[in-house]
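Hi W.,

Here's what went into the run:
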Amino acid sequence: MSDSYLWFYFPLVIAIMAVLEICRHDDPRIIIRRSLINSAILTGVLAGGALVLHLLGRYL
Amino acid sequence: MSTDSFGVVLSGLMLIGLLFSTVLFEPAHRKTGAAFFLGWFVPGAGHFLLGRRVKAAALFLILALLYVVGLSISGWRLVSFDDNPFYYVGQFGSGVTTLLGRLLAEPKAYPLEKFPPKWIDPGMLYVCVAGLLNVVVVMGVFNAERKAVAPAAEGEKK
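Here's what came out:
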């Protein structure tokens, strides 16, 4: 079994987004859709930031 | 105050708050006050009290799952102050996590042999996040109450 931290990232982010959306909305479809979209956006932002840091560390 | 007594004091404060909210609050706000403090003890219980049962069940399941997974990874032990002060405080966001932590006695997380040792940190993070998310859920009780009252008020206007 891989000991990567990534095993924990996606369940945690989806759980956090789901709880936040459940508090805001009543419709399950909206909750699921917005949770997944927000998780994807957060992941994209983090991945983008990590990429920028990686490139800065490598070439500067 | 020792770090061990922090959870006990917090539980006492919440219990006193629950009692005061049912006695001192105006009748219109009593239920919300009780839901606020009850929601701290059991995740989702506040929403359940306000009649939003599906939402309450969903919130309880998500937070309980996070907590159980985190606990299982960190050796079924409460996060101690020595492990991580931030995670230690965060786990007190819900009464059940505080109570279970006390019942599980030895306040020192340790990795189980079947898991890689470095998983101890995300395990403690899960326990902490379960507590912190419950703070958000408890605050959501006021929003749930407003939504429950708004349709009734509109019906009265008509």
